[in-house]
Amino acid sequence: MPKRVLSGVKPSAEMMHLGNWFGAVRQFVELQETEQNYIFIADFHALTTVHNARQLRANSREIATEYLAMGLDPRRTVLWRQSDVPEVCELAWLLSCVTGKGLLERAHGYKAALAEGREVSMGLFCYPILMAADILAYDADLVPVGEDQVQHIEMTRDMAEYFNHTFGEVLRLPEARLAKGFLRVPGIDGQKMSKSYGNTLGLFEDEKTLRKKIMSIVTSSTPMGQPLDPETCTVFALHSLFPGEDLEVLRARYLAGEIGYGEAKKLLVPKVLEAATPATSSRFWPTGRGGRDWWRGPPWTAAGWPRASPMRSETEAWGPSRRSWGSRRRWATAATSSISRLSPGPWNCCCR
Ligand code: TRP
Question: In terms of DSSP H, where are the helices of 168-260?
Answer without folding.
Answer: 207-215, 234-239, 245-256
